[in-house]
Amino acid sequence: MADLFRLDGKVAVVIGGGGGIGKALSLGLARQGAGVAIASRNLEKLQEVAKELAADAEVKTPVKAFKIDATDEESVKNAVKEIVAEFGTVDILVNSQGQNIKQPFESFPVSDWDLLFDNNVKGVMLCCREFGKVMLEKKSGKIINISSVAGDRGVPLAGNTGYCGSKAAVSNVTRMLAYEWATKGINVNAIGPSVIFTPMMKKALPPEVLAGATALHPMGRVAEPEELIGTCIYLASAASDYMTGQIVYVDGGRSCTA
What we know:
By secondary structure, this protein is an alpha/beta fold.
């Protein structure tokens, strides 16, 4: 039997591929044999990341950078055209873009709220829709959205109402798109991590906040970005062909507690 988890001959697109999570997932997909297109707003940074990933000893496939503003319809459409022209198709889409804006709810600026939902929800919608058209045409594809355990329950850390709301939207868009495309050959699932200790997070989190976040997890620690790779590969591969509409919580046990 062929290795169910190999991705040889597949083309993966990772939106937000220059970020801590996106970079880790891009490397994991490339090591499993997929050609990888990484895409985000900052093309210069992406090109450096693409060079770094392509130089990895286990990567034998192309890794290339493309500019995209996932919140802009025309930018997404143009990125689809460029990536398909370069790689020939798209088999796997990973939506790892997003941000967290923390504000007390009673003073949450509407402009920040709109920015949060544009990046976390509208961007996912546009990328699923436009890259999904390529998959619909060939009746085959895997879509993996990065949601959060915060989309399932509240976070006992102040200022997260907007973030929790946006990730709940990502989770339910995932479920409903899975239902809508279930007979069209496209699997749509999401990964729901808890706190991921990305380089940006390491710089931003004060020690006392990190200690509070760590205490929420039964495993007694927060995760490294690389700990999402296995789940991503599973959802991208033939191993998950009968799985759709699921949010897989990779969260150190956070979702099994109140």
